[in-house]
Structures are given as structure tokens and as C-alpha cells.
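User: I'm putting together notes for a lab meeting next week and I want to include a structural view of one of the chains we've been expressing. I don't have a solved structure, so I'd like a prediction I can at least talk through. The sequence is below, exactly as it appears in our construct file.
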Amino acid sequence: MSSSTKPKTTLPDKHDLEAMSLFRYELRKFLRVSEEISNVAGITSLQYQLLLHVRGFPERQWATVGELAERLQAAPNGTAALVSRCEAAGLVTRKTDKTDRRQVQVHLTAKGERCLLKLAAEHKTHYGSFGWVFNERQE
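Assistant: Thanks for the context. Below is the predicted structure for the 139-residue chain, given as C-alpha cells.
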């Protein structure tokens, strides 16, 4: 790609920097609270995120390791290890796909579902600074 076809980068102004700073501040506050909520429940924030992504995957109740890796922005082998830790804790189970036996589905167990719903309810109250998360459904 030649330098003439690259989009021009404009320097941020004071308003941009303030908005970026506020976004990072609110994001960091949320992540800190999320870590605390998860740790009190006896799981890591990554385990909570995995449960959330399994159950929150669009149009179905399970996800593949590759899909979870994408959602977590993690390497597939690291995600597979996280799934194994969640499986050992009784939170998820692996099932071979009936139509493509190479594909492995990750499902929540009843324990994983209970854990997720409890933690998600606690997290939901902290999404307020991110008003766009629930759109019109915010209660």
C-alpha cells in the first residue's frame, strides 16, 4: 500500500482527549468491579467472561472454542485451557457436534448457568456508565 492511499490521521483535540480519558476511566472502573464480583464468587474474571460468552453467543446457547477465543481476544490453545479449567470446576461441558464431529461445542452446566446469572445480575447494575449496552431495555 502506498503512503498516498493511507487514511490521514488527525491529531486529537482537547475534547477528544477528555472523551478518551473518560471512556478509559469508566472502562477500568468497570473491569475492577467485575474482577471483585467474580473473585467473591470464587471464579476468575476470565472464567466469568467465558460463561457470559457461551450463554450470550447470538442465536444459540453454546459456542465453539474458536468462537470463544475470538470473543475473549485470546489464543485458541489458551481458551481451550480456560474451558478445561471451567469444565473441572463443573461450570461447562464439552459436546461433540452431531453434524461435524471435528467441532466441539461448549455448553454451560446447571451450576454454570446459576453462577452466570447471579454474577451477570451483579454486573448489570455497573453497566450504567455504558448506557448503550442495554439500549432501550435498561431498567
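A couple of points you could mention at the meeting. The longest strand covers residues 92-96. The domain at 48-128 is CATH 1.10.10.10 (Arc Repressor Mutant, subunit A).

User: Perfect, that's what I needed.
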